[in-house]
Design goal:
This protein is mostly helical. Helix 2 crosses helix 3. The protein starts with a helix and ends with a helix. 14% of the residues are buried.
Amino acid sequence: MRGARAALVAAALLLANPASAVTSPADMLPDVAQEERARALGREIRCMVCQNQSIEDSEVSLARDLRLIVRERITAGDSNAEVKDFLHARYGDFVLLRPPFAWNTLVLWATPFVALLLGFGLILMARRTTAQIPPPPPLSAEEQRRLADLESQDGNRA
């Protein structure tokens, strides 16, 4: 039973095509160069439903619609910039996986740098506070005797 289940899972993984969601020949452009251009451009466009996938990687219907729009625009003779501008005008910065650097996207672009600086600051503060902690006082004669007793008991158990 387990072997059959494992074989089914392996077959499903082999038959799956994770490289691209464009699987229908009707969706593909007849010109191979244009199709490659459409796929490359599609990897720069965000699926608005999945949000962390490009439209080329997504299986949802909105992503398919956007893939078809990209292919229609390329067939009409638009450049890559014109296709992006067309989608950007309709859907805003969010449709681009790499949004443009502008005042309204400044937080998006600055966040990694701010986080890095805060992390370094926290590390420096932690190093300073640990350097200021005084070492513990030495053990008293009574504490040393108790420690020796505990160590000898552990040695007898082993």
